[in-house]
Structure formats: structure tokens, C-alpha cells
């Protein structure tokens, strides 16, 4: 469906566009629900294509966290008295396609491991931005249970990003050099 633009360059909203902040928050949760489920499918491929035992372990550990993040999002939907719904997240879809392309364009070894970390950190940064925004909305809306669940995931994403940075700086990038 093409985006409608007015003569003054303004984008016309779709018929089902969010009118309230709560609706916008729920839309974001639907995106992240899709994103986390897609990650559960794709993280094993990243681990399988890693050669560093430390990187394999980090990716597999985050896979376990991601499975819990899916459950937390389901809990957040439940707290809002909504059925969990996944709506394709174009941003995550693009990041995962890029990660696949990176793996196809690098030989197995330290360079591919460095590329996997780069791709994984792009994913983490997107998740940090998304969960941070959703948590802000939940706080403004007084959704304490949703806020608690989102902040727990946000903290995991930040920790994962820090761990990947440390791994890149202390091992992987040095070997790739």
C-alpha cells in the first residue's frame, strides 16, 4: 500500500492509525513481539556460523534470554488485557537480512565473527531504542506491570550489548585484524 502524501508534503495517516499513546505503545509491542520471535529463529544461525567459542556461547546465552523476552512480552500483553499479536517489524526484518548477507559475504573465521558481532550490535541497539521508548510510554500511562517487564528486557539488551563490545575489543576484532 502506497503512502499518501498531501500537496504540502504531509503524510496522510492510514485508516487504522494509532490515535492514542496507548495504541502506539501496543503497536510497538506487536513489532517487538515479532522481532523477538524472529530472533529466536535466527540466533541459532549466528551461533552456528561463529567460530569463536566465546561468541557462540554469548549468542546462545542471548537466545535463552530472547526466549524469556518473548514470554515477558506475552505477559505485558496480558497485563493490558490483550491477546499477544506479532506484526512484522520491518526494521528487524532488515537487520536480520543484513546479518544473513554479512555471513554470506565473509569467510568463516575471525572476520566473520567480527561481522556477526557488528550485526548483533545493530540488533541490540534497535532493541534498546525500542524498549526504552516503550518503557517511557508505559511509565507515562501508569502501566506499572508493563513497565516492569519492559525494563527487565531493556536491561538485558543493554548488558548483551556491553558483553558483545567487550568480546569484540578483547578477542574477536584483534584476531580479525
TrEMBL record:
Gene3D superfamilies: 1.20.1260.10. Keywords: Coiled coil. InterPro entries: DUF892_YciF-like, Ferritin-like, Ferritin-like_SF, YciF. The keyword Coiled coil applies. Residues 56-83 form a coiled coil. CDD domains: YciF. PANTHER family: PROTEIN YCIF. This is Ferritin-like domain-containing protein. The lineage of its organism: Bacteria, Pseudomonadati, Bacteroidota, Flavobacteriia, Flavobacteriales.
